[in-house]
């Protein structure tokens, strides 16, 4: 990855931090964004000088577009920033639905549009983080499942429209980050892991390695694919987060 520039959204915590650290380790110059400067600063401390942190809300269209355009050539874009809250579909307000759909789909689409020129110049690669089995539905996450199924469709569509750019949709199963711990109680996480065919979670290191591999060019014969890094949990699609 030496000499390549990567942008990682949500680089101050969890998966985004692990991805940023792995890319730096492999020689890339990494730009990390997120809203909380103190979390980004901790990633910067761990990563060293080839990591540059910029506080940015990816939902702020004008700021995000200007920032991405300012990067110029972009070898790898990792759209990792995301989040949701668990609720039965009937109880999700319009504001709540819109916020989750915006963060996890619409803002991501806008960032991709802004990054197109830089990605095209570089013949770059994109990894869009999603959820396992988004197209099969997730009880308790209707808003996020809808947005994440949208990401898979967006990934496929852009793979058809932007032939020089490789796009991947990477869908981890359960990754035991602080972020997922805020969204789901431990007993629900344990139940999801127990019903996974491989009976295990997905580690941060595994997600980071997959992102690095997809970003490195070893999968350059592939574009538009949804890759479920989930121990087979998408095959049983047992996830019901509301009980
Ligand atoms: N952990 C899992 O089991 C799992 C499984 C499948 C998919 N995922 C997805 O993988 C991604 C990372 O998850 P995680 O577990 O690492 O959770 P996390 O630690 O909560 O990561 C979410 C990151 O997104 C950033 N973010 C949120 N809103 C943002 C905004 N408006 N602008 C810029 N950055 C924003 C957050 O930083 P700030 O709050 O500082 O902005 C945070 O760094 C998420 O999209 C998540 O849904 C996670």
TrEMBL record:
Its main location: other. The keyword Transmembrane helix does not apply. One of its GO terms (biological process) is fatty acid biosynthetic process. InterPro entries: NAD(P)-bd_dom_sf (IPR036291), Peroxisomal_t2-enoyl-CoA_red (IPR052388), SDR_fam (IPR002347). Keywords: Fatty acid biosynthesis, Fatty acid metabolism, Lipid biosynthesis, Lipid metabolism, NADP, Oxidoreductase, Peroxisome, Phosphoprotein. It catalyses: (2E)-decenoyl-CoA + NADPH + H(+) = decanoyl-CoA + NADP(+); (2E)-hexenoyl-CoA + NADPH + H(+) = hexanoyl-CoA + NADP(+); a (2E)-enoyl-CoA + NADPH + H(+) = a 2,3-saturated acyl-CoA + NADP(+); (2E)-dodecenoyl-CoA + NADPH + H(+) = dodecanoyl-CoA + NADP(+). The keyword Cytoplasm does not apply. Pathway: Lipid metabolism. Pfam families: adh_short_C2. Its EC number is 1.3.1.38. GO terms for molecular function: trans-2-enoyl-CoA reductase (NADPH) activity. It is found in: Peroxisome. Participates in chain elongation of fatty acids. Catalyzes the reduction of trans-2-enoyl-CoAs of varying chain lengths from 6:1 to 16:1, having maximum activity with 10:1 CoA. Has no 2,4-dienoyl-CoA reductase activity. Interacts with PEX5, probably required to target it into peroxisomes. This is Peroxisomal trans-2-enoyl-CoA reductase.
């Amino acid at each position: 990855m030496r000499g390549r520039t990567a942008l990682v959204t949500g680089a101050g915590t969890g998966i985004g931090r692990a991805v940023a650290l792995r890319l730096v380790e492999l020689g890339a110059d990494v730009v990390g964004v997120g809203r909380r400067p103190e979390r980004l600063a901790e990633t910067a401390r761990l990563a060293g000088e080839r990591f540059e942190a910029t506080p940015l809300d990816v939902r702020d269209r004008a700021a995000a577009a200007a920032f991405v355009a300012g990067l110029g050539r972009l070898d790898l874009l990792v759209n990792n920033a995301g989040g949701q809250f668990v609720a039965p579909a009937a109880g999700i307000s319009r504001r709540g639905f819109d916020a989750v759909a915006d963060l996890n789909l619409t803002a991501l689409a806008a960032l991709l549009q802004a990054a197109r020129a830089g990605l095209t110049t570089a013949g770059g690669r994109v990894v869009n983080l999603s959820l396992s089995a988004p197209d099969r539905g997730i009880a308790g996450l209707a808003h996020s499942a809808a947005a994440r199924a949208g990401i898979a469709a967006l990934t496929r569509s852009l793979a058809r429209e932007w032939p020089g750019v490789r796009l991947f949709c990477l869908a981890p199963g359960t990754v035991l980050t602080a972020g997922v711990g805020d969204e789901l109680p431990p007993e629900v996480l344990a139940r999801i892991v127990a019903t996974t065919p491989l009976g295990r979670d997905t580690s941060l290191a595994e997600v980071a390695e997959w992102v690095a591999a997809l970003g490195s060019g070893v999968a350059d014969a592939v574009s538009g694919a949804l890759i479920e890094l989930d121990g087979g949990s998408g095959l049983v699609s047992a996830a019901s987060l509301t009980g």
